């Protein structure tokens, strides 16, 4: 009976808590470091696509909406001279690692890494080379030790990154499970499918944990609606130490985003 009463009380209070203004001392992303990387510019056909750079640009803007400082968010492109605003840096693991370490020194609250590219069972494409999960894990371990971190990898087979990156204070979100492709990087796609779901779900999610679940649901729904198969099954893993903290990092209210576009296979 007591359990039932607590459940009813929780249901009654939930709308009030959701509508309550954020406390002045609530955690925020104002002192977090972030890097957003487009790892390629080719479509699955081999022709050119703007999908990865479109995602890189708009994910970067979304992080600012989440409360990240403009000075603490850096973007990277394989073709940086093509994009005057915001001007990205050249996609290079050494430079990204050094920049993340520098940003994290100045912004010790936490770290976020977002990579969108093609993928393979060995890792994700970064320029002309494959970035293996162990190397990304080593870079994040070095640049962001002992602080909460969120790593998002949007690529085929990106589930291979989950286990090597796991730490108690991390969240890892990937576009597919280790043995599956993902969808949406043809010449005429605006975004890869996973990135589209990330962006379209951002306006209604409360925090990164809720956003990860919303992206999973969005991807699954679109794949069912369009018959894209086998299902990519985006992966979400949250370490025990970070799990109770993520809801405290609530996103500011945002205007609703447009619906996600139908996917095309990578």
Number of DSSP helices?
7
> Which consecutive residue ranges, at least 5 long each, have pLDDT under 50?
1-24, 262-266
Helix/strand order: HEHEEHEEEEHEHEHHE
Q: Give the C-alpha Rg.
A: 18 Å
* CATH topology-level fold name: Rossmann fold
CATH architecture: 3-Layer(aba) Sandwich
DSSP strand count: 10
Write down the overall mean pLDDT: 89
The tally of structural domains comes to 1
The oligomeric status of these chains comes to single chain
Would you mind describing this structure in some detail?
This protein has helices at residues 2-19, 51-65, 93-106, 133-143, 162-165, 193-201, 208-226, and strands at 32-38, 73-77, 89-90, 110-116, 119-120, 123-126, 129-131, 149-154, 170-174, 235-238. With 266 residues, the protein is of the alpha/beta class. It has one domain: Rossmann fold (3-Layer(aba) Sandwich). The strands form two sheets. A seven-stranded mixed sheet has the order 3-2-1-4-8-9-10, with helices on both faces. It has a three-stranded antiparallel sheet with strand order 5-6-7. Helix 2 (51-65) runs parallel beside helix 6 and helix 6 packs across helix 7 (208-226). It is globular, with a radius of gyration of 18 Å. Mean pLDDT is 89; it is low at 1-24 and 262-266.
